[in-house]
Each structure stands twice: as C-alpha cells, then as structure tokens.
Design brief:
The complex is a heterotrimer of chains A (347), B (299) and C (255). Chain A contains 13 helices and two strands; from the N terminus they run H-H-H-H-E-E-H-H-H-H-H-H-H-H-H. With 347 residues, chain A is mostly helical. Chain A folds into three domains: 46 residues; 30 residues, no CATH class; 228 residues, MetI-like fold, CATH 1.10.3720.10. In chain A, helix 5 runs parallel beside helix 8, helix 8 crosses helix 10 and helix 9 packs antiparallel against helix 10. Chain A is flat and about 80 Å long. Chain B is mainly α. Chain B has a single domain, classed as MetI-like (MetI-like fold, Orthogonal Bundle). Chain B has a two-stranded antiparallel ribbon with strand order 1-2. Chain C has a six-stranded mixed β-sheet with strand order 6-7-8-3-9-10, sandwiched between helices. A four-stranded antiparallel β-sheet of chain C has the order 2-1-4-5, covered by helices on one side. In chain C, strand 4 and strand 5 form a beta hairpin. The chains are: A mainly alpha (347), B mainly alpha (299), C alpha/beta (255). Chains in contact: A-B, A-C, B-C. The complex binds adenosine-5'-diphosphate (ADP) and magnesium ion. Adenosine-5'-diphosphate binds next to strand 2 and helix 1 of chain C.
C-alpha cells in the first residue's frame, strides 16, 4: 500500500563505518590504561630482574652484548663497556642478589659497594609514619569540622581551600621545608642535624593532609541522612551524633583515607629528597637524617651506569615501591568498596 | 553541663584543625612570596639566567615547563577523555573488561611519581628510544635513546591520565539519561549521541580535567628527573629530541646542589613562587569551573 | 477489530524480563494504522515497558531480555537483520518528561534531519518550520528560533519534543504520558495536537488519565501486572468492556 508519509528507509541492517571505527578506537584507547599498568610492571621489574635471576641475567647480558657489537652502532650506549670498566675495579662478588640487599649498609659507590636496603626501608617508614602521625589527626578533624559541624556556606569555602593545598607541587613543599621549616624547627627543638626525619615527616604531612581530608570528608558526607536524623530525633546533640553515629559508620572510609595517605607519603620523592638530609642511617631516632627508598632512586639514578648492579638495585627499590603502594591502594579500595558500601546498605 | 563543654570542645578542636591547615597554607605562600619578592620582576620571567645562574631570569625554565605540559596534554587529554567516555558510555558495568580498566585506572593514580620516572627510563628511553635509533639512525648515533622532552612529556602524561579520566567521567555522569534517550529515539547512533549530545554537555569536565592535569604536570619533578630535564641549557628546546629546563627541577637543583646555595636564595624563592602561582591559579580556575558547572546542574 | 483497518504493528506473544523479573507476560495485539491507541492500566503494570519494546528503547537498559515478535513493515523488529537505528527513525517517541536538548529551538528540531545527512540550510529551515507548524508551536516561537529550548514553558517544551520527533518523518509516534506533567491548558493543546496528528501518523499513547484516553483514542488496551487484559474499541471499552476486571478499573479511575 502507498504510505502517506514516513521515510521509506528499509529496516535492513546497515554497516556504518564511523560507528564501527569509533567503538573500536574508543575501546582500544580505554584498554591503554590497563596496558600501561602491565607495561610499568613489566619494564620496572625487567630492569630489576637480575636480582631475582642473577645467573640468567648474565647469559642474557652477553647475548645482548653480542647483538649490540654486531649491530651497526658501536657508539650507541655502551652498557657492556661501562660494565666492564666498572667491574675492573669492582670486586667480583658484586652481583646483585638478595644476599647483598639484606645488609645494613647502603654505600653504592666506592671500592666495595654495599647495597643493603634496610636503612632505606627504615627511612621510608620513619618519614611515612611521622607524616601520618602529624597529618592524619589534623586532616580527619578538619574533615569532621567541614562535613559535620560547619554551616554549608563555610564548608564550601573550606573544601576548595584544602583542595588547593593538594595543588602545591611537592618540590615546593620540599623547598619550604628545606629553607624555612628546617631552620625554625631546629631553633625550637635544638637538635643537631638541621635536616632529618622529623622535618621530612612534618613536610610530608602537608602532602598527606589533602588526601586524608578529601577521602575522610567524602566518607563522612556519604553517610545517609537518615542515620544522623534518626539520632538527632532521639534527642542526641549534633556532636554526639557526629561522634557516636556518623564516625563509626565512616570508619572504613577513614581507614581507607589513612591507607591512601600512607601510600602517598611512602612513594613521595621530592619532599624527602630535599628535607631529610639523605643519610642512610639505620636508627630510630627521628631527629637524625634519613634516606628513603624513593629519595635514593631520585638522587642516584641519574648518575648510575645503565645495566650495572647499582642500576639494577635502584630498579628493584622502585619495583618494591610500586608493589607496596599497589597493595596499599588495593586494600584501601577494598575497604571503601565492600565495607563502607555494605554499611550504607544498612547492616 | 559536662556534656555541653565536651561538645563545644570537639567542635572547637576540629575547627582549630581547619584553621591550622589554612594558616599553614597562607604561611607558605607568604613566606615564598616574601623570599622571592626582591627579584620577582618582568625581567625575571623573560630573562635568561646569567652569571653562572646566580643572576638573571628563569625564562628557559618557564618555556621548558610550558612545552612539557603542552606535549603532555596532547597525549593525556585525548586518552583520558576517551577512556572516560568508554567507561561511562560503552562499558557494561559488570563486564570483566570494564572492571579491569577501572582497576587499572585506580592503580595508575596510586603509582608513585618516581616509579613513572623509572618506567619512562626503562620503557621510553631504553626500549622504544633505543629501538628507534637502531632502526633509523644510520651512523649509530644516539638520538632517541637518551632523555628528551618527548619522553619526559609522555612519562608525565601517564601520571596525569587518571586526573583527566576522573574529571571527565564526573561530568559525563551529570549528563541526564533523558537526553541520551531523546537522541536515540530520533534514530541517532551511539557515536552520534556521544558526539552531539554527550560531549557538548561535558565540555566543562574535559576542560577541568585538562587544567588539573596541566597543573599537576607543571609541578611534578620526580617523573622527569631521568627522562629529559636538564639543569642548564644554552638553547631553548627546538626538537622533540632536545632536553629542556623545568621550574620545579630548577628549584630542586638550585636549593640542593648548586655550589653556592646562599647566593641564589632569592632566585630559588622567586622560582618557587612562579611555579606555585602557576599550579595554584590553574587549580583555582578548575575549581571555579567545576563550581559553576555544579551550580548550573542544580538549577 | 474492524476489517477495513490496516495494521501498522503486530505484537505476538511478547515476554519481557528485567533480569529475572518478568514485566510483560505473553502480550499479543495489533495496532491499527492512522489511529490512536491508548495504553491504560495501574502504575507499574508495564505500559511504558510495552511502549519501549515497540522502538527497541529497551535495548538501552542493561539486563533486559525479550521473547516473542513485533512485526512492523512485515519484519520482526527483534530479528537480527533489523537495524535499530533505522527502526527508531520510523517509530518516533515522546517521553513523559519533556527532554529538549540544551540547544536552540532550531537546533532541537534540526537534530534529526542533520544526523540523517540533511545539511542544506534552506531544506533544514523548511523541515524545522513544517515540524513546528505541525506540532502547533510555530506561532509561539517563530521569532526566536535561536532561543534555548530549555527556556520554553513545560507545555511548549513537550510540543518542541513532538516537533523534534516529527522532523525525522516517522510513521509511528509513541507517547509515554506526554501530558502528565502539564497544566490543563497545555494538556488540551497536546490532545488537540494528537487529534490532528493521527491523520498522518499512527499514535500509541500511554496515559493514566481515563478521560484523556476516552477523549483522544480510537482503541484502548488495558494492562494489568504485565498482562494485556483487554484490547478493544475505545468507546466499547469505556461503556461496555468485556471483562469485569476492566470495568472495575475504569470505574475506579473515573469515580
Ligand atoms: N529499567 C528497569 N529495570 C528494572 N525494572 C523495571 C525497569 N523499568 C520498569 N521496571 C519494572 O517493570 C514494571 C513495569 O514498569 P513500567 O513499564 O514502567 O510501568 P508503567 O509504565 O505501567 O507504570 C514495574 O514493576 C517496574 O518496576
Ligand atoms: Mg510509565
């Protein structure tokens, strides 16, 4: 029959190139985040691999050497030459392996290099724990204030201001700690080393505060209204409700905030590089200089010879940083996802 | 009565925490401004360093930083935006692929900056760059297999991709489903709906994301330490294979490694002030855009 | 159903599940061409769901499963060979909540033609004007076509959405409670418009307003909990329905 109107397009399935291409490209690009993570994993661990497989690496290296020498670029980077040069004055037992890493001394340069990472681990932990101790209580309290006590208008001012603190480049915080904070603190406490774990921890707290604040604030404001309203209806005051209803409900979120803050501090480089004095000491005195894992990489990587033991160990430290922060973030996410959400569904 | 005092003190203590944070922020700003005030000038911004860096300006470091974030944006803004579009528009929430990508994005945003630096060194320079030299350079000279502004920018892009994703996704979520449905009901294809309805309505998110990413990229130093930054260069970078100077790195080296740290104190402060002013105003702009946008949504 | 009527859409044994939850239960009916068919029934009985199966808008909801056939233009629209984009161009939809794009009035109406490849300015102008005339909005907006569609009143916005749908030149219009959010005057305008439009279009309208169904429709289908209970001539439905269940519902709603 004759249609009075209507487009007479057939209903047959059409192939639309732009549709096909756009979906394909978008999916591929989206996959890149995953690919990047895998690549980071592969390449950071690849460079650290000799630690795990000392012998195999040797074989690999010699293969690499051959292909390099037979290649057309004798002048290109010379890991082999430098390695030989280096090993000409490096004792033969200087092979990267777990044994060498467990020592108490970090002296990567010299007649007899020592790659004990213990002082670096202690250094990282010291600064990180101090940063959490200084920063977290303040950040959590501030979050409580802005989420639970502050009038709405004030809250909308506080939140962006603290978010602005997150936009402080860590090199600026490090600089501030180095030139100002260190001197001020030394004048107050009178310890002997101007730069130390204490200064580093306090400076690091400035980097930790915004992240702990933001995550805590989110957790506190995500508590459903009915929970606090029920409590208020029973005659509890605002602060009682905050303390006994909202806070407990938000604990998993606050815990996640602490973990994320810990991960942030543990991986941070520039602040510790500038503010901690960088001496690899294995003490627990917080007023002595420390050298963290990240700072070690930052300070030494530019000067090492590609492919030698020192290089490998630095990559190994980097791989460890990656694994630790990865684990911490995964746990934090798990907490937010499962625990926090479960509670909100009212269990 | 006791209760009342307790309640008041809890509020007071938490308010004090806010005051402490805000005053720390203001104190740092003021301290850095006052320290650099004496050398801050137009010449400082547009001049080259002189007298072995103890005098003169920071122009090359500004140019280097700007180039770094521009090249970085070219990589991270499209990738971040497209990933966000995938996650919000195409992905089925329950699919394994989606969960995998989400997990990757979360992981990526937690990777320490220095690890990105290591990755840039191991992947871009040692792997890609060396391979490129092997393929393209006839005389075996080192061109791409060494640190340069391209590798540094790409390394920085990896770090800022999650920043873009989060911001864009947030704005995609605010596009009402009604609008998408309206498009589909008119016989629009998925890509048409995204291109003509979804993206135009989330421009502010893409903008915010880009600005935040640029602010972040301008301030980070660890990822570029061994991927392309240099302390001093006689020339501005002209090719992607050139090294570059950078504000953050400038501060770091001058404050910790130059032979006469005291002599350059004011320059250090002033450089820190310039860097801080950049990142600060960028995130300020981003906050304003976001705030305006949220207000518009509520109306 | 009268024999002299052409059928536009034939639905056979349609079942629809949202995940495990069944929302439509073995629905069969034939929708006549160039008539207004009203879908009535208590809230949650599946009217909107049924309407959305007719242009496959349910495809956009995750976890929907559909069994049965919907014949349109001699094709089962759920057949793999059918292009859903083309289908939606021929079966347009008006939503309960008016949803103009945050663009100008002109751009709203021109959206459909543009995605169909019409780029000639005078041709677009013509389509926009005709669509706005047919949706009885032209006189009110002809002087500010560049104004945002969101600046219009609720009733005008809904008519803009109708114009937007007409601009694609569909054969069927699906309307999901198009006047439920509107004031009485706007509602009257929309009802008058439906009366005009049925000369050219097949219209299927969901409504919870019995008077409206009685006023605008030629046929009425009564749904209850996912079942199609009764489908017949509107006049008969509202005077002497076959089933007591239908009668009770209509009584209750009128009363
Ligand atoms: N997107 C959806 N997901 C799951 N269930 C839905 C969805 N939409 C509707 N339903 C359910 O299907 C049934 C029919 O809904 P609907 O078609 O909207 O009813 P009506 O339009 O008649 O009020 C209801 O029980 C409703 O809860
Ligand atoms: Mg409905």
């Amino acid at each position: 029959m004759q249609k009075k109107n209507g487009n007479t397009n057939s209903l047959d399935r059409k192939f639309r190139l732009s549709e096909f291409l756009s979906e394909y490209i978008i999916k591929t690009v989206a996959f890149s985040s995953f690919a990047i993570i895998i690549l980071i994993f592969v390449f950071v661990f690849k460079e650290a691999a000799p630690i795990f497989f000392p012998k195999e690496k040797k074989a690999e290296t010699s293969q690499f050497l051959q292909s390099e020498t037979y290649g057309e670029e004798p002048g290109t980077e010379q890991p082999e030459n430098s390695l030989e040069l280096y090993s000409s004055y490096t004792p033969s037992h200087d092979v990267a392996s777990f044994k060498n890493l467990t020592g108490k001394n970090w002296q990567p340069v010299g007649e007899e290099p020592k790659y004990g990472v213990l002082p670096l681990i202690i250094g990282s932990l010291k600064v990180t724990v101090l940063a959490i101790l200084f920063g977290a209580p303040i950040a959590i309290l501030a979050a409580i204030f802005s989420a639970l006590f502050a009038p709405k208008g004030l809250r909308e001012i506080i939140k962006p201001i603290i978010e602005l603190l997150a936009s402080f480049p860590s090199v600026v915080i490090g600089f501030f700690a180095l030139v100002t904070l260190a001197t001020v603190l030394q004048n107050i406490f009178g310890y002997s080393y101007r730069l130390n774990a204490f200064v580093g921890g306090l400076a690091m707290a400035l980097a930790v505060i915004p992240i702990v604040y933001t995550v805590t604030e989110d957790a506190l404001t995500a508590i459903p209204k009915y929970m606090s309203e029920a409590s208020l209806a029973l005659g509890a005051t605002k602060w009682q409700t905050a303390l006994f209803v909202v806070m407990p409900a938000a604990t998993p979120g606050i815990f996640a905030a602490l973990l994320l803050g810990f991960g942030r501090a543990f991986g941070e480089t520039m602040i510790v590089l500038m503010a901690t004095g960088n001496a690899p000491l294995s003490t627990f005195n917080i007023f002595e200089p420390v050298r963290t894992m990240s700072a070690t990489i930052g300070a030494e990587m530019a000067e090492v010879v590609f492919g030698d033991t020192h290089y490998t160990v630095l990559f190994f430290i980097g791989a460890s940083l990656f694994v630790v922060t990865f684990a911490i973030n995964a746990i934090a996410e798990f907490y937010v996802r499962t625990k926090l959400m479960k509670r909100f569904r009212g269990e | 009565m006791n209760n009342k005092i307790l309640g008041k003190s809890i509020v007071a203590v938490s308010a004090l925490a806010v005051i402490m944070i805000v005053s720390a922020l203001l104190f740092i700003l003021l301290e850095i401004y006052l320290g650099g005030r004496s050398v801050l000038s137009w010449q400082f911004l547009t001049g080259n360093p002189t007298e072995g860096m103890t005098e003169g300006g920071i122009f090359p470091a500004i140019v280097g930083t700007v180039l770094l974030v521009l090249i970085m944006s070219v990589a991270c803004v499209p990738i971040g935006t497209i990933t966000a579009i995938y996650l919000n528009e195409y992905a089925s929430k329950k699919s394994f692929f989606t969960k995998m990508i989400r997990f990757a994005v979360n992981t990526l945003s937690g990777v320490p900056a220095i690890v990105f630096g290591l990755f840039g060194l191991g992947f871009f320079i040692q792997f890609i760059g060396t391979e490129m030299d092997r393929m393209f350079s006839a005389d075996g000279s080192l061109l791409w297999g060494q640190p340069n502004i391209l590798w540094a920018s790409l390394t920085m892009a990896l770090l800022t991709i999650p920043v873009v994703i989060v911001s864009v996704e947030e704005s995609l979520k605010t596009v009402p489903n009604d609008l998408r449905g309206g498009g589909y009901a008119l016989g629009a294809t998925k890509w048409q709906v995204i291109r003509k309805i979804v993206i135009p309505n989330s421009i502010s998110g893409i903008l915010t994301g880009s600005i935040l990413a640029i602010g972040r990229g301008a301030g980070e130093v660890a990822p570029i330490l061994f991927t392309g930054v240099a302390y001093f260069l006689p020339h501005l970078p002209e090719k992607l294979s050139d090294q570059f100077m950078n504000l953050g790195y400038h501060i770091y080296v001058m404050a910790t490694q130059s032979p006469d740290v005291e002599a350059t104190k004011s320059i250090q402060y002033a450089t820190a002030f310039v860097l801080l002013a950049c990142t600060f105003s960028l995130s300020f702009i981003a906050i304003i855009i976001r705030y305006q946008f949220r207000k518009k949504i509520k109306e | 159903m009268r024999m002299d009527l052409q059928t536009e859409i034939i639905v056979e044994n349609l079942n629809l599940y949202y995940g495990k939850k069944k929302a439509l239960n073995n629905v069969s009916l034939s929708i006549p061409e160039n008539k207004v068919t009203a879908l009535i029934g208590p809230s949650g009985c599946g009217k909107s769901t049924f309407l959305r199966t007719l242009n496959r808008m349910n495809d956009l909801i995750e976890g929907v499963k559909i069994e049965g056939t919907v014949l349109f233009d001699d094709r089962n629209i759920y057949d793999n060979s059918v292009d859903v984009v083309e289908l939606r161009k021929r079966i347009g939809m008006i939503f309960q909540k008016s949803n103009p794009f945050p663009k100008s009035i002109y751009e709203n109406v021109a959206f459909g033609p543009k995605i169909n490849g019409v780029s000639n300015k005078s041709q677009l102008d013509e389509i926009v004007e005709q669509s706005l005339i047919r949706s009885a909005l032209w006189d009110e907006v002809k002087d500010d076509l560049n104004k945002s569609g969101l600046a219009l009143s609720g009733g005008q916005q809904q008519r803009l959405c109708i114009a937007r749908a007409l601009a694609v030149n569909p054969e069927v219009l699906l309307m999901d409670e198009p006047a439920s959010a509107l004031d009485p005057i706007s509602t009257t305008k929309i009802e008058d418009l439906i009366y005009e439009l049925k000369k050219k279009y097949t219209i299927i309208i969901v409504t919870h307003n019995m008077q409206q169904a009685a006023r605008v429709s030629d046929f009425t289908a009564f749904f209850y909990m996912g079942d199609l209970i009764e489908f017949t001539d509107t006049r008969k439905m509202f005077t002497a329905p076959d089933l007591k269940q239908t009668e009770d519902y209509i009584r209750g709603r009128f009363g």
